[in-house]
Amino acid sequence: MKGEGSLLRSYARPRRSGAPAWWLQRVTGLALVFLVVGHYILMHYNPISGHDYGQTASRLASPWFKGIYLGFITIGMYHGLQGIWNIVRDYKLKPAVGLTIFGVIVIAGVVFVGIGWNTILSFDPLKP
Amino acid sequence: MPYTPERRPFSAWNKLFLGYRRYSGSWAYLLQRLTGIGLVTYLFVHIWALTSLMDGRAAFAKEMVTFTSPPFKIAEWLLGALVMFHAFNGIRIAVVDLANGAKYHKKLLGAVWVTGIAVVVMMFFLIFSNEIFAK
Q1: pTM of the prediction?
Q2: Of B40, B60, B91, which is closest to A53 when you measure between CB atoms?
Q3: How many domains does chain A have?
């Protein structure tokens, strides 16, 4: 970024291609089709499958399920917030406004992925 | 046939709501964005609500009393409609972008609606199985 000026300027005239983000949005989207639709059906397969502590605890006892959920949260949040940013970018915003929204999106994503991972990793099925 | 937008005088409101969104693909584009915003909003609420898993069995059960009440069950079923449209139309977008779906994108959109409505109706019977099939 030599000679490009401030961060604001480089945001206003981005040099990097958006192609990787565009491609990742398709790939994560296709993965999420199976993850989200599967999750939705599993959570409502019967009245307790998604709304009972014991059922949830038995799923979280499996390291496979834990791993899938960690990835699910991460790519779900990435896909969602990349999509929001994609919508925001369609509007002609002042660089400072765009950069602020981008910052809020990134921070919110990192914080909520952290909250989700924390819930799964610190889950203790024996707690009363 | 090339795309030729009609040139008719529009009022400002007609322009906003009907001007360039009268074609099925434009509605799909708009709906994909609106359902996407809805789903990512739900994702934040979902992650936050499930932190109660860390508070143990009693706290989780107490929360689930609310979430299994009729208004929330209906909301959860309607959430499925957002999910199914966004997921199936998302497949359509991937087929258009990564394969030769542009040649048959309207047929794909028909399939999106048919599959989506079928799955949402099926989910109604699963989610409300207790209420429908009570002895």
Answers
A1: 0.84
A2: B60
A3: 1
